[in-house]
What we know:
- GO terms for molecular function: FMN binding; oxidoreductase activity.
- It comes from Thiothrix fructosivorans.
- By secondary structure, this protein is an alpha/beta fold.
- It has a single domain, classed as Flavodoxin domain (Rossmann fold), CATH 3.40.50.
- It has helices at residues 18-27, 56-67, 84-94, 119-132, 160-181, and strands at residues 4-10, 34-38, 70-74, 77-78, 81-82, 106-110, 112-113, 135-136, 144-145.
- The strands form 3 sheets. The protein has a 5-stranded parallel beta sheet, with helices on both faces. It has a two-stranded antiparallel sheet with strand order 4-5.
- A hairpin with a 2-residue loop joins strand 4 and strand 5.
Amino acid sequence: MTTLKLLGISGSLRRASTNTGLLRAVSSVLPEGVSLEIADLSEVPFYTQDLTEKPAAVSKVLAQMAEADAFVFACPEYNYSLAPALKNIIDWASREPNNVLLAGKTAAIVGAGGGMGTARSQYHLRQVCVYVDIHVLNKPEFFANAFAGGFDADGNLIDANLKQQLGVQMQALAAFAAKLKR
């Protein structure tokens, strides 16, 4: 019986993304009773109040967010900050009445990038999460160097040590989510 439903959201739209690869790796290290679904942001348009109705791609991801107990954000770093696709879906979700899709939910952040492994973008994402009332797991943090041989050509995580670190983080997320749910 699954007791905790996670939604993985990658800020990268690239097919061979190492950040989306981290989400695939998360699905292989989840604790018992935890499941993960990965959202597809590839067709989600930029948020604008000018749209008279929500596009189908947006409605699908928002429905996934409504079903999720917690999030795993795979946060690439673009120009020292978070990727537009990730910020965009949070913007869409925050426009729902009373912020029901985000407020009070928990999240873990993972990221693969250059030398600092997305540390700066994760910091910016944490700031956004404060505003929309998502409770982000503080520790353990997860940063991976995408160019140090830990990923294959398709973006899949192949480094056993990094997979083990993801497993530890997912156990901590499950415990954190359970604690806040009480």
